[in-house]
Every structure is written in structure tokens, then in C-alpha cells.
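Report of the visiting student (M.T.), summer placement. My assignment was to run the structure pipeline on a short list of targets and document each run. The first record concerns Anti-sigma factor antagonist.
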Amino acid sequence: MTGGEVDGLSARLEAPDSGTVVIRLDGELDLATRDHLSEAVWAVLPIFRPEVLIVDLAGVSVLDSAGIGALVGCWKLAQDHNCTLRLRNPRPLAYAQLRLTGLLDVFALAETV
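After the run finished, the C-alpha cells were exported:
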């Protein structure tokens, strides 16, 4: 399944099994694109009803405070739907930002695949 591209951020959806959905992001997750991620999560949760939603950040070249805020908002939304949101494959700078903000444990980084 493929998502769209908006303002330099694309999202591809994968459902490797019935309980997990992966959103693979490519581009910049920032003020201009944060709503694209939120919209993808809003669409995925009621349709797939996953137990685990993984946001793969391997293709994210920029992650600013607005992008981190969007990730936190998506985490809260997933919690409201009894779903665990995990992050996977953040680049070193994104990993450092998540560590600095204390969010590594919140997002329970998924194994790299």
C-alpha cells in the first residue's frame, strides 16, 4: 500500500501481519509536513486496527521540534486506540534529538529490519 507525498514527505504503508502496520517515511518531518504524518496515522488506526504501529524513520533527513511534536501526538492517538506506537531506524541526528528530549523510552524503538 502506498501513501502520498506532501511538501517533501512521503509515507508508504505496509501491513506485514494482521497486528502490525508500518509507516515508512521519506523526506523531511518538520513544520511543513507534520500534518501529513498525523493524517496517515488517523487513516491507519480505524481501518487496520493494529496492535502495533511502527513509524520507520530511515528515510527522514530532517526531524525538527514540530516533527517530534507530531510523533508525540501520533503516540497519544495510538494510545487512545489501544495501539502501541514504536519508532524504527532513526538516523543518528534524529536518535540524538529523541534521546535529548527523553522520548526514547516513550517510543520503545523497534528493532531494525
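The longest helix spans residues 65-80. The two ends are 18 Å apart (CA to CA). I thank the supervising group for their guidance throughout the placement.
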